[in-house]
Amino acid sequence: MRDFSVTGIPTIDYYDFFGETESRIMFGSTAVYAAVALAKQGADIVFSGPISRDLDKKLLAPLTNVGVKFALHEMEGTQAWLRLVFAEGGRVTFFEIDQGVGEEFSAEQLADDFWQARVCWIGTCPHAYKVAVASKGQAHGCEVGHSPQGEFGRSVDEFSAVVKNLTFLNTNTAEMATLGSGRLMIALNLVREINPDLQILLTRGRNGAWFIRHNEVYSIPAIPQVESEFLVGSGDTFAATFHYQRIQGNPIPVCLQRATAAAVLKIRGFSYTMMGNRDEILAETAVLTPRLPVTYATWDSPQAIRWIEQEDPDWTQFGQTE
Q1: What is the mean pLDDT of residues 65-80?
Q2: Which residues contact 159 (CB under 8 A, 6 or more apart)?
Q3: Residue 66 · residue 40 · CB < 8 Å
Q4: How far, CA to CA in Å, does 37 sit from each of 2, 57, 229, 308?
Q5: β-bridge pairing 199-203 and 209-213
Q6: Are 102 and 108 contacting, i.e. CB atoms less than 8 angstroms apart?
Q7: Alpha-carbon distance 99 to 24, whole Å?
Q8: Per residue in 135-159, is it b (16+ CB within 10 Å) or e — as a string?
């Protein structure tokens, strides 16, 4: 049984950086970033999703070169695409996405072999698709995880249809707070009521991250970083590394520290070009651990309640759009 089966709607990504006259082009999406991070660390993974028959397959080479296995489905139609525009300093000022052939793809098109994995990872995709994949993944006995990128559905009922079948949810505090009309505690209580067993990995931008599971809350600080246009994908790298370390049986503090090290390494370069491999992450963790104390509290403790109620979500995690 493989470690991860990853799915989502892969996109052709166009990055328009400040001062550059031409777009940088890559094969992307949140699920692709997670897949590369996992493969570079030695995880056995397969990525499955829809592509247009017209896709230039050369764009897949950087991923296959690091060990990503593909089970792609070619379809007639337009390739899904994403455009990101950056201001000086790396701030996202505009984004646009078109799901293309992804709008027509269904969970029934995933091969039986896709479900033979410890973890089924769902990236960005239409709501109906994520609902179907989460349900089938749970039915096949997989852990099911999702990185929603702020897309929780149009109502609590829609969101509930996904969350009730998840093992873990990866998001940030700003995205999560939208479920509670800006109140993080309300949002977390809502999600935990829908699925009391849900594991929640919450990134907090410049404040660090939390991992919440049943009555446990773990908190890790962030490593201060300079502004960078290469931050895109660092959250996916953090989440992928955390869960890979977790399923290998490592203690949660170690998982959080190694995930932070992996995210720090990711922003060394554009796209997934400078993501760390296993040895690099272990070495970076050894350097950073003294600056990464992990604090534990119980969910209903005054300390945890104070953490959450006093949290000021970092809305720059959404990117600033015009």
Answers
A1: 96
A2: 152, 153, 179, 194
A3: yes
A4: 16, 20, 18, 29
A5: antiparallel
A6: no
A7: 19
A8: bbbbeeebbbbbbbbebbbeeeeeb
Cα separation, 289 vs 122, whole angstroms: 30
Where b means 16+ CB within 10 Å and e means fewer, 275-300 reads bbeeebbeebbeeebeebebeebeee
Fold of 2-318: UDP-N-acetylmuramoyl-L-alanine:D-glutamate ligase (3.40.1190)
Domain range list for the chain = 2-318
* DSSP letter assigned to residue 53: T
Closest by CA position to 7, among listed 109, 154, 140, 83: 109
Tokens of 41: 């660390």
Share of the chain above pLDDT 90, in %: 80
Q: Which residue has the tokens 């990995």?
A: 201
Q: Is the pLDDT of residue 113 over 70?
A: yes
- Give the three-state DSSP class for 32: helix
pLDDT at 226: 60
- Tokens found for residue 10: 């892969």
Residue with tokens 């600033």: 320
C-alpha 285/C-alpha 256 separation (Å) is 10
Give the pLDDT confidence score for residue 227 in this predicted structure. 64
Q: With H, G, I as helix, E, B as strand and everything else as coil, classify residue 316.
A: helix
Q: Which residues, 6+ apart, have CB-to-CB distance to 290 below 8 Å?
A: none
CB 23 within 8 A of CB 9: no
